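Re: weekly structure request thread

Next one in the queue (148 aa):
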Amino acid sequence: MPVKIRLQRHGSKKRPFYFIVIADARSPRDGKFIQKLGTYNPLTSPATIQLDRQRALDWLEKGAQPTDTVRRLLSFKGVLYLKHLLRGVSLGLFDDATAMEKFQKWHSEHEAQFKKKQEDAMRERRFRRNPPYQRQERRPAGNAGSEG
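Done, posted below.
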């Protein structure tokens, strides 16, 4: 049975919200699924992704094929990088502790960048709602009617 990791659409018209699911490749997009791994909300800025990293990694190791969009989401959350590191451990290139250290370093840097993006988006939203007050220039009252 070919298994896919794919998105299952929910939400109303023009307001998408997705579940990240494990499903048989032959089942319909919003049909029956095997397991739910997380959610993806593209409407927030930046997009919100909640994912069970360990279950996704287990399914990838079992041979589940992610769709293109889900592959990008897994890469963003570090699942594919972790799979890459664990492959290096199985080949004997380095040990588990080194792999986890590399992943934790990457994860902390990635989280810092993500927090910065969130803060910038929040600042931009606040700026659009309440633009800063700008003083208008005052003209002297004596020169108002003496043109020409």
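The longest strand covers residues 3-10. Residues 3-132 form a domain with the S16 Ribosomal Protein; Chain: A; fold (CATH 3.30.1320.10).
Next request, please.
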